[in-house]
Amino acid sequence: MTETASPYAALENRFARIARIDDALGILHWDYETTMPEGAAPTRAETLATLDVLRHDLLVDPQVADWLDAADAGADVGLDEWQRANLREMRRAWRHAIAVPGDLVEASRRAEATCEMAWRRARAEDDFAGLLPSLSEVLNLQRQVAEAKAAAFGCDKYDALLDAYEPGGRAARIDALFADLADFLPGFTDEVLEAQARAPDPVRPIGHFPIDRQRGLGRELMQAIGFDFDHGRLDVSAHPFCGGGLSDVRITTRYDEGDFTRSLMGVMHETGHALYEQGRPAGWLAQPVGQARGMAAHESQSLLVEMQTARSRPFLEYLAPLVRDTFGGDGPAWTADNLYRLYTRVERSLIRVDADEVTYPAHIILRFRLERAMIGGDLKLADLPGAWAEGMRALVGVVPPNDALGCLQDIHWPGGGWGYFPTYTLGALAAAQLFEAARQDGSEIEAGIGHGNFGPLVDWLRSHVHGHGSRPENGDALLEEATGRPLDTGAFKRHLNRRYVERAW
Amino acid sequence: MTETASPYAALENRFARIARIDDALGILHWDYETTMPEGAAPTRAETLATLDVLRHDLLVDPQVADWLDAADAGADVGLDEWQRANLREMRRAWRHAIAVPGDLVEASRRAEATCEMAWRRARAEDDFAGLLPSLSEVLNLQRQVAEAKAAAFGCDKYDALLDAYEPGGRAARIDALFADLADFLPGFTDEVLEAQARAPDPVRPIGHFPIDRQRGLGRELMQAIGFDFDHGRLDVSAHPFCGGGLSDVRITTRYDEGDFTRSLMGVMHETGHALYEQGRPAGWLAQPVGQARGMAAHESQSLLVEMQTARSRPFLEYLAPLVRDTFGGDGPAWTADNLYRLYTRVERSLIRVDADEVTYPAHIILRFRLERAMIGGDLKLADLPGAWAEGMRALVGVVPPNDALGCLQDIHWPGGGWGYFPTYTLGALAAAQLFEAARQDGSEIEAGIGHGNFGPLVDWLRSHVHGHGSRPENGDALLEEATGRPLDTGAFKRHLNRRYVERAW
Q1: CB of A400 less than 8 A from some CB of B
Q2: How far is CA A265 from CA A115, A270, A304, B380, in A?
Q3: Are B119 and B236 in the same domain?
Q4: Tens of pLDDT along A454-472?
Q5: ipTM of the shown complex
Q6: Measured between alpha carbons, how far is A4 from B49 in angstroms, rounded to an integer?
Q7: N or C end of chain B: smaller count of CB under 10 Å?
Q8: What is the pLDDT of residue B234?
Q9: Which of A372, A430, A412, A379 is nearest to A162 (CA)?
C-alpha cells in the first residue's frame, strides 16, 4: 500500500487500516462471548493479543508521529472542519498509545488476564484476601500507566486514565457534579421511598416465557426503535454487551424463562448503544472522528432508550398489550400501571447492576472516590473492604454482609478498567439533559413514544448526537451543541422529580 | 516483540504471528458465511483484504529472507527432524509469497471478487458470453501469477499454480494417474450400470425431517466418529465447508426438511476434514509444519469418512436404526439395504458436486485437462463451452444442454482457484489407498465400523496421517510412510470393484 505525499492523507490511510483491525477484533470478541467453543479460549486470547500488538505497532510507527507533526504544522492546506477534528482525534489516539512503553502494556494485559480469572474464583468464594496479590499487581501497573500518561499529557494521574474513556474528562469537574448529586440524592431517595411505601407494590408477571417469544418481542421492539438488522444482530451471552464490527453492530442479552422483564429492558439498553453505533457519520466510520464521543456519551444513548424512554409510562402503555399478546398474559400483573411500578421501583440495594436509576449514582460516586484514592495512593488496597462498607453506609444506606456483595462485585478493577466508573453516571446526567432538549424541540417526540412511533426521537438523536461522531472536541462540546449548555445535574434532577415524585413520566 | 538471536527461533516467532492472523481470518470467513448480516459484506471484505495484506507483509519482510538464508546455511545447530521440516515449509510459504509482485496479487484479488459476482449472475442466466470479459481478466492474471511463480520455482506454469494446493505436485504425474483412470472407468461404469439396472431401484425416504432432528443426528454421528465439540462447531451455510480457527474447527451443512440424506452425508464429509484439522500435531498447530499435507491429503480424509466409511454397507447397517429412531421412519425406504443402494447409486450426470464416486473422476479429469490447456495457452476461453461439451461426451457420456449445467457450474475458475481441481480425485485415490492399508493393519478397524466403534480407524488415521502435519515432504512421502508406496490407482480400483461389483462394502 503506497502512502500519498500529503501527511493528512497518509494518516487517513493508516487509521483506516487500524479500523479494519478493530473491525476484526470486534467480531472476534463477539464470537468469543457468544459462539466460540470453550476449548478455543486460550488460542483465541493469543490471537486477540496478536491483533492488539499489530494495531499498536501501526499506531506507534515513527512515520505516524512525523505525519502528525507535519499535518499539525499546516502541511495540508484546506482541511475542512471534519478533517481537522479527525486530525485532533488521531493525535489523541496516538498520544495514548505512545505514552506507555510496550512492555508495560504487555505486563498490564497479562496481569489483568490473571486477575480476572482470580476474581471469578474470589467472588464466588467471597475471598478478598485471595484476590489481593493479583489485584495489587493490576493496581500497581495501572498506577505506572497513569504516571506515564500523566507525564506525557501534563495532567493528574487519575485524569490520565479517565481520558481513555472520557476524552477531556477531569476528575475535579466530576467531583463537583457528584457532590451536587450526593447532596441531593439521600433526601430525595427518602422521599421517594416513603411515597412508594404508600402505593401498591408491583407484581412480577409469573409464568413460563419461552426464549423464542422473548427474542421475537425483543427484535420487534428493536426494529420499531430503529435498529437496522441488515447491519446488526441480536444474540445471547452471559454478560450482555453491544459490540461487533464497523458496519455490523451486535447486541446480546441473556434470557430467563421465568422472568421476561429484565432481558426486555436489557435489550432496550443495548439497543440505545447500538443506535449510536449505527448512526455514526457514514463517511467517517473507519476514522477516529467517526467514533462515538466517549463512554459517557455512549452510556447516555443506552440510558436515553432504557431509562428516559422505555421505562416511561407512555412506553409501558404501548408495551403492555404487546407483552400480553406475546406471552398470553392476563390479570393485574400485566397492566401498564403495574409494569410502570415494576420498572420504576426504587430500593437501597447492594449490587450496582441491579440498582434503579435513583440509587445508581450513589454506587458510582462510591467507586469513583475509591478508585481515585487508590490511584492517587491515598487508599491502600488492603483497606478497600472497610472503605467500601463505610461508603455504602453513607452513600446508599445499606452495608454489604460480605465482600462478594461488596467490593468484589464488579470486574472493572480486576480487568484494568480504572477510570471507567464515572462515565455511567455522567451518561445518566447527559441522557436526561439530551432528552429534555429533545422534548423541547418538538412535542411529537414525546407523543410518539406512547404510540410506538420512535422516528421523531431517533431523528433528533441522529442529527444532534449520533451523526456528529467525535467532531465536537469532547462530551461537553457535544452537549453544548445539542442542548445549549455543558453537562449539569439539572435535567437529571428534574427527570427524577417528574418520574418519582409527580409519577408523570 | 523482540526476536531472539537464532534465525530459526526468529522464524518460529514470525510464523506464529502469521498463524494468529490466519486464526482471525478463519473465524471471520466462517462468520461471513454463516452469521454476518448481509449489509456488512462490503466492509467485511475490506477487513479480510487488510488482514491478508498484513499477513503478506509479515511474510515478505526482508528479515524473513535473511533468517531463512541463515537458517538454511546451518546457523542453527541441532535442529531436529520437525524443526528442519518446519524450515522447509517456511521456505515454501515464503517462495509463494515473494514470487508474485504485490500489485499483481491485488489485481488478482479484485478481478476475482468482480468475477465471482458476475459468475453468480451468469450461471443463473446461462450467459457464458456475459462472463467472458471478467473471466478473461481472471485467467489473464492467473497466467501472469503462474509465469512469475514458474520463473521463481523453475517449473512448468501449471505446476506452479498446482503447487499452492498440492505442494510438490506435478501435472505430468497427475496425467499418468488420470490416463489410467480414464482408461479404466468407462468400461467399469458400463458394467456397474448394467448390474445396477438388474437390481431394485433405491427408494428415497419421504417425510418431513425437522432441522433440529437432522442437526441432532449429525452431531451424534460426529461425536461417535471423534469430532471434539470442545474445539469445534456444526453450523449452517449455503455452501458447506470446514473452516474456523487454530483450535476451533467449524464445519457447516445445509438442511432440506424434505430430504435428510444429502445433509447427513455432507456432514460426514466435512467431519473427515475436521478430524484432520483437530488431529494436527499439538505442538505445531501455529507453525507451517503443523498444517495439513496439501489439499489432496485433506480431501482424502473427507472421502475416507464419507466414501470409504459412511457409504459402506456396515456403516449403513449401524445407521439405519438411528435414522428410523430419529425421524420415526418405517418401511422399505428405511432399511440398511435400501440406504446402501441409495448411497452407492451410480449415474452419468452433469453436475460434479452431485456425482457419485464412480463418475466423479471423469468430471475432474475434464476440468484438469481444460484448465491446464487454458493456462498453457492451448485453449482459448471463448472455446471453453465447446471443449466442455466434447469432453463431457467423451469422459462422462452425457452432454450438457447449456452452459449453466456445463462450464458455468463451478466457482473455482471465477474465484481464481486454477490448479485446485485435480486434488479432488487425488484425494479419492489416497483415501482408498489409506483405507486399504488401515484395514490390513488391524481387523478391528473394519469390524468397528458396523458397530459404531470408530476409535480404531481414527486412531490409525491420527497416527498415520493427522499427527504428521506437513513433516513428510509431500503427499507421496506421507503415503509412502502410511501405506508403503506412493499414490497409485490400484486401491481405488479395488475399492470400486469391491463396492460396485461385489457389493461387499
Answers
A1: no
A2: 31, 9, 12, 63
A3: no
A4: 999 999 999 999 999 999 9
A5: 0.94
A6: 20
A7: N
A8: 98
A9: A372
Of B43, B246, B248, the CB nearest to A245: B43
Question: What's the pLDDT tens digit per position in A177-216?
Answer: 999 999 999 999 999 999 999 999 999 999 999 999 999 9
Answer yes or no: are the C-beta atoms of B60 and B103 closer than 8 Å.
Answer: no
What chain B residue is nearest to A57 in terms of C-alpha separation? Answer: B1
Q: Is B473 on the interface with A (CB under 8 A)?
A: no
A252: in domain: no
Q: How far apart are CA A32 and CA A236, in angstroms?
A: 12
Q: Looking at the structure, tell me whether residues B219 and B106 fall in a common domain.
A: no
Which chain A residues in 194-233 lie under 8 Å from chain B, judged by CB atoms?
228-233
Contact: B27, A28; criterion CB under 8 Å: yes
Cβ–Cβ below 8 Å for A230 and B38 = yes
Residue A36 near chain B (CB below 8 Å): yes
Please tell me the total count of domains within chain A. Answer: 2
Chain A positions in Cβ-Cβ contact with residue B40 (cut-off 8 Å): 231, 245-248
* SS3 assignment, position B166: coil
Residue type, B323: V
Are B40 and A247 a contacting pair at CB < 8 A?
yes
* Host domain of residue B62: 7-126
Sign of CA dihedral B277, B283, B285, B291: negative
Tens of pLDDT, residues A389-409: 999 999 999 999 999 999 999
Cβ count near B415 (within 10 Å): 15
Contacts of B34 in chain A (CB under 8 A): none
**Does residue B402 lie within any of the structural domains?**
no
Q: Which of A270, A277, A299, A436 is catalytic?
A: A270
Look-up of cell digits 524473513: B64
Residue A40 to residue B229, Cβ atoms within 8 A: no
Q: What is the pTM of this model?
A: 0.95
Which of A129, A149, A165 terminates a domain? The answer is A165
CATH number at A30 reads 1.20.58
For residue A122 the three cell numbers come to 474470589
Q: How far is A104 from chain B (nearest CA, A)?
A: 12
Please judge whether B20 and A50 are an interchain contact, meaning their C-beta atoms are less than 8 angstroms apart.
yes
